[in-house]
Amino acid sequence: MIEVRGLAKSFGDVQALSGVDFAVGEGEIFGFLGPNGAGKTTTISIIAGLLGADSGTVRVNGMDIAKDGTRVRQILGVVPQDIALYEELTARENLHFWGGLYGLAGKKLRGETDRVLEIVGLSDRADDPVREYSGGMKRRLNLSAGLIHGPKVILLDEPTLGIDPQARLNILDIIRNGVSGGMTAVYTTHYLEEAEKLCSRIAIIDHGKILAQGTLAELVMLAGEGSVVTVTGAFSSAQVSPLLKGITVEHFGDGSLRMMIPGRSELSGALGRLFSAGIPIEDVSIREPSLEGVFMKLTGRELRD
Amino acid sequence: MATLRVIFHIAANDFRLTLKARGIIAWIFAMPLVFMLVFGLAMKGSSGTDRKARLTVDNRDAGFISRSLIEELRAEPLDVVDSLKAGESAIRTLVIPEGFTEDVLARRKVALELQKESGADVEASAAVNAAVFRCLLRVVSPLIEMEAGMLERGTKGFAFKGDSLAGSPFEASLADPRLLGQIEAGLDSLRAEPSLVTLRSTAAGALRKVPSGFQSSVPGSLVMFVLMTMVFSGAAITVERSTGVLRRYAYSPAGKGSIIVGKLLGRMLIAFVQIVFLLLVGKYLFRISLGSSTGALVVLMFVFAFCTGAFGILFGSLFRNPEQVSAISIIATLAMSALGGCWWPIELVPRAFKTIAFVFPTGWAMDGIHKIISFGYGMGAIAPDAAVLAGFGAAFVLLASWRLRPTD
Ligand SMILES: Nc1ncnc2c1ncn2[C@@H]1O[C@H](COP(=O)(O)OP(=O)(O)OP(=O)(O)O)[C@@H](O)[C@H]1O
Ligand SMILES: [Mg+2]
């Protein structure tokens, strides 16, 4: 549905994108994960035809954005990173206006407005001016304005930016449900959990380059990442070290031990040996393999706002 | 069709948004009235005198035809004087030569001299010329009528000889001295009748006098406050740009052309509402004349709305920071209004300022409006003003569309 080949873009001296390739299949939610300044918004802008690429091609539903911009925009919805709404208008008035730009009018426009207001749960506040909305409500309306014309493809640029965790979960649910109607989505974020929860495939982008892409499992494998197990108790390192042959120990001290364990069977084996040797364990915590680790491995940095 | 619908959709939205802006209603409707009133009253005393164009008549003839001509001239809205007092200046001096009456009656060639005074206003001069020709016509045509009558009656000493005319009323009067008196009386009575021929010169209309009082403050305030509204609504584009709203337009299939035309149209609609309101207030509340050419007024106001609407959009496209815009917009509007002649009649400022006025669209708008409402001119006279305003508008639109990029 979306095919991006060899995209490069620079702003003066800043190389915002270099050689970005990815493809998104129909009905897929594709995650675009990267820290600030990675090139997420630039990629979205090029797919939407707002920016011209220095080189490379973008095809949406088989149409080249550089040649068929107007037709692409007809089936494309964009949810911008910034809340782009008329604050002095109500939610309904906003949606009527934005829908009208796509040629919707009359009954159809009113019907679609009601539909997306329902999806984002703003039906009961539809006639209040946006100015009076909370941050989360504005985000939801911003999202609905990208859905008003029933696009086949939606580009979501950090749609949960700057709102509390509760409201974020709410938006993720909306997207999951909204997109179940066969919509194809590109979802950019710098929240790992969001990409993990929402996306079937994920690309990790940093400094304008895609470092890795694939399903969550593929990425984790790629980075050789396993579960991180932390064990605390009244033990000394001399007591436990003979029991941990063949296991990557990250941190080892008296009373505390952190190890990297590649799979489930190795995990139960290691913990079993500690228990049967009678080591006094007080607490065991297991962190499942995550993109966090993958990102760390790939970039050597943590991914944070 | 679809494009047109999107354009109207955008126009309607911008129209609504402008009217929703805080305090805008006061600026559109109430403040201009205050200005019209205050400036109108302030200018009533200072330049309220009716400055008719002055014509000096140097009459060296003693006959009744020159007397009739001067009587006709006095009936025109001219200030006809025999000689100038110290410090006075005239637009034209008419020299009537000695023996003028006799020469005319003898059908001898006679030259009237109409001397142009240096530094006279072109339009005032044209008006004086037209008045002089009108008067000549009103004197000469009865004479021709009487000659024809004399020929018909076969007055002695005055007849056709083959194809040509022999003799003249003067020769005939030599044979019959009473004839001169008859011609004089005939001329007076024929002049009193409504004339069959009227001369309307293109520069016809009231004479150029300095508009004063409300006649000056109404159009001045109109031009200034329409510009103000347009600049103000143009600043909304800066806000749309900084919030990313403008970028959302660019995500839609509506092209840049439709977006700009739509936004321009929305602003022009606001300008029309304001213009119609202020003109009606001028006419019915301040009792000023709106001239006789509604067509010319409509055309001029249309291009004025186009020009200022386009200026507003250009203005909004030049800046990124909304706070910056509101400060600069006031200064720009005031400067363009003052220099364009919205605050005091352009006739009263030094020559250099008159030239500066025409650097700004406001100067052309004021010039055009006064031509229509104060001097009674029509479409032909305002054509240059309308063309220049349209040219300004087109340039503003082009610049704005060059400045406004969807990625901003
Ligand atoms: N219009 C522009 N002019 C100059 N540089 C730009 C422009 N837009 C983006 N950049 C630069 O390109 C790089 C990528 O920016 P981009 O906005 O795509 O990042 P992003 O991944 O969306 O970041 P964020 O998470 O902060 O939104 C950055 O270094 C940015 O400074
Ligand atoms: Mg971004």
Describe the structure concisely for a colleague.
By secondary structure, chain A is an alpha/beta fold. Chain A has helices spanning 40-47, 69-75, 91-100, 106-119, 135-147, 165-179, 192-198, 216-222, 237-240, 264-276, 291-299; strands spanning 2-11, 14-24, 29-33, 55-60, 63-64, 76-79, 153-157, 184-189, 201-206, 209-214, 227-233, 248-253, 256-261, 281-287.
Q: Any idea what the radius of gyration of chain B is?
A: 29 Å
For the largest beta sheet of chain B, what order do the strands appear in spatially? 2-1-3-4
Whole-number total of structural domains of chain B: 2
CATH architect. name of the largest domain in chain A? 3-Layer(aba) Sandwich
- Write down the CATH class of the largest domain in chain A: Alpha Beta
Greatest interface by residues involved: A-B, 28 and 23 residues
- Give the number of domains of chain A: 2
**Spans of chain A with pLDDT under 50 lasting ≥5 residues?**
none
Helix content of chain A: 25-40%
| Biggest sheet layout of chain B | 4 strands, mixed
Estimated share of beta-strand residues of chain A: 25-35%
Series of secondary-structure elements of chain A, N-terminal to C-terminal: EEEHEEHEHHHEHEHEEHEHEEHEH
Helix-strand sequence of chain B: HHEHEEHEHEEHHHHHHHHHH
Describe this structure in words.
The complex is a heterodimer of chains A (305) and B (408). With 305 residues, chain A is α/β, with parallel strands linked by helices. Chain A folds into 2 domains: 2-221, P-loop containing nucleotide triphosphate hydrolases (Rossmann fold), CATH 3.40.50; 226-288, 2-Layer Sandwich (VC0802-like), CATH 3.30.2130.10. Chain A has helices spanning 40-47, 69-75, 91-100, 106-119, 135-147, 165-179, 192-198, 216-222, 237-240, 264-276, 291-299, and strands spanning 2-11, 14-24, 29-33, 55-60, 63-64, 76-79, 153-157, 184-189, 201-206, 209-214, 227-233, 248-253, 256-261, 281-287. Chain A has a 6-stranded mixed sheet, sandwiched between helices. In chain A, strands 2-1-4-5 form a 4-stranded antiparallel sheet, covered by helices on one side. Chain A is elongated and about 75 Å long. Chain A starts with a strand and ends in a 6-residue tail after the last helix. Chain B has 2 domains: 10-43 and 216-403; 53-192, abc type-2 transporter like fold (3-Layer(aba) Sandwich), CATH 3.40.1710. In chain B, strands 2-1-3-4 form a 4-stranded mixed sheet, with helices on one face. In chain B, a hairpin with a 2-residue loop joins β5 and β6 (164-167). Chain B is elongated, with a radius of gyration of 29 Å. The site of magnesium ion has 4 residues of chain A, from α1.
